[in-house]
Amino acid sequence: QGSDSSDSANVKRLREKGISVAVGHAPENLKDAEVVVVSTAIQRDNPELMAAREKRLPVVRRAEMLAELMRLKNCVAIAGTHGKTTTTSLVATLLDAGHFDPTVINGGIINAYGTNARLGDGEWMVVEADESDGTFLKLPADVAIITNIDPEQPERQSVGEGK
Hints:
alpha/beta; UDP-N-acetylmuramoyl-L-alanine:D-glutamate ligase; two-stranded parallel ribbon; single chain; 4 helices
C-alpha cells in the first residue's frame, strides 16, 4: 500500500497491479503498515510520517530500501551529472533485448515501457543512481556507470580563493 500527493499515471499503474494507493497524505493511510518508506521530498511534518513515528514504525529512506532490493539481484547503477536517465534506459533496453528481463528503476519514463520502472523476473536490476542528495553512495552496484562529472549548477560554485 502507499500514498501520493496526486493521482498520476504511476498511481494508476500501481493500482492496476493490485496495489492500494491513497491520494493525499493522512494518518489513516498507514492502515496495517509494518514499515514506511519515504523519499527525500517528504517533509518532517508529513501527517503519515508523523503517525508512523507515533506508532513507532520503522521509517526507511527510499535509497535504503532500494539498496536492500538491489542486494537481491546483479545490479547496474548509473550515476553522473547528465545523461543518467538516457543511459539507464539504454542499458535496460539492451538487457531486455538480450532476454535478461531486468527490473528497472529510472528517473524518467522509458519509452519502451511507458513508465519509469518495471519489475522483471531476471537476475539483473538497472537503477538510476541520483547523486543530488548523496544517497547513491548507499547503493551496492555490481556494475557502476558514471556518465560524466561536472558541476550541475556552476553559477553556485565558488570561482576560487583570493578574490
